[in-house]
Amino acid sequence: MDKIASGVQTQLVRTALHLTADCGLRVRNITFDGAAANVATAKQLVVDLCSMRENSFDHPTPGVKISVSIDACHMLKLFRNALAEIKVLTNSREERIR
Fold first, then answer.
1. Strand-strand pairing, 65-70 and 29-32
2. Rounded to two decimals, what is the model's pTM?
3. Of 19, 29, 41, 44, which one has the greatest count of Cβ atoms within 10 A?
4. Are 57 and 68 in contact (CB under 8 A)?
């Protein structure tokens, strides 16, 4: 299986946070690539990755926040690969992006 539903992934993240907290480990950040399931998981964790205002959610441990970020290097690689394949990028009005 190469894909996971965002609801399942969200539960796995929450379970992992509980287990690591029980062991005394502190998770401060979760980094995703930009896959649709990962963005949906972030939304289920109450994080809007498109907003620069709120990029964290409450850890199971009271008073602790976990920040969420997108792996910028991976996103640049995806953009490079898309540009190599598509050759010309256009916006929503079909205008060429220069």
1. parallel
2. 0.71
3. 41
4. yes
Provide the mean pLDDT of the chain: 86
Structure tokens that stand for 15 in this block = 């379970």
Name the pairing type of β-strands 65-70 and 56-58: antiparallel
H-type alpha helices, the chain: 6-22, 36-44, 72-86
Query: In this structure, how many other beta carbons lie within 10 angstroms of the beta carbon of residue 16?
Result: 13
Structure tokens at 18: 């509980």
Q: Is the pLDDT at 96 greater than 50, yes or no?
A: yes
Which H or E run contains 56? strand 56-58
Print the SS3 string covering 66-91.
EEEEECHHHHHHHHHHHHHHHCCCEC
